[in-house]
Amino acid sequence: MHERFIFKILMLGDAGVGKTCLLQRFTNKRYTGYYKCTIGIEMMVRDIEISGCKVKLEIWDTAGEERYRSMMSSYYRQVDGIVLVFDLTRRLSYCHVDYWIEEIKKYASSDVSIILVGNKCDAFGDRQVHQQLAVMYADNLNIPYVEASAVSGYNVDRLFSKVSVNVFDQRINHMQLLELESIPRGIHLRDEKTLATNKLTTRLGGFCC
Ligand code: GTP
């Protein structure tokens, strides 16, 4: 199996919502539990497999603190997917999701795949955001919503795999379109062979591994 894809994913959300912890849980399978605010931006990598294709995820963990935000906007445009995190035990971080969505609209590509994540679902008694509210909000935006916990690991793999599969599907659709556009028009004897080959490649998937 050959590595064929590299996806860039950006973690966004207020300070302290658990972006770093989710990412560490996903890449190192561990939870440190202490809070060290991210300075600027840090990158972690994990390889996954989607439909038999090897995918390298480069995940950029951003600082949620306001003073770092202006430098973040330059990263938005380069990414394929965004994990937008809020803290289920802090209602204000949920209210700020609107702000993050506006930032994404302003700076990211219009076809970027977004997933909304309510983190810290292990803290049952402290919940301040009703699940149904967040589900409706995400439905309105037509993006998936997942509740997760970096402490227990609940849904952590699932959330990253969900956003990656969406990016993957989009990439494949895009490549298929390009492939179809490259099929020669007109009926020339010499072109028929190319046409047949292109059709075969499309039918077999043809783009990965
Ligand atoms: P910035 O780097 O400042 O943007 O913060 P961040 O969003 O990266 O938050 P971080 O991952 O550093 O976590 C902040 C605090 O939340 C830490 O004290 C963690 O222990 C705690 N925390 C993170 N994830 C969870 C979780 O799933 N459940 C609970 N109960 N606490 C969590």
What structural class results from the helix and strand content? alpha/beta
Q: Describe the largest sheet.
A: 6 strands, mixed
Give the number of DSSP strands: 6
Mean pLDDT over all positions: 86
What is the CATH third-level topology name of the largest domain? Rossmann fold
Helical segment tally?
7
Unreliable residue stretches: 189-209
Helix content: 40-55%
CATH architecture of the largest domain: 3-Layer(aba) Sandwich
Quick one: overall form?
Answer: globular
Identify every distinct bound molecule in the structure, by name, code or SMILES: guanosine-5'-triphosphate
Strand content: 15-25%
Q: What string gives the helices and strands in order?
A: EHEEHEHHEHEHH
CATH class of the largest domain: Alpha Beta
Strand arrangement, largest sheet? 2-3-1-4-5-6
What is the rounded Rg? Answer: 20 Å
CATH superfamily of the largest domain, called what? P-loop containing nucleotide triphosphate hydrolases
Number of domains: 2
Distance between the termini: 6 Å
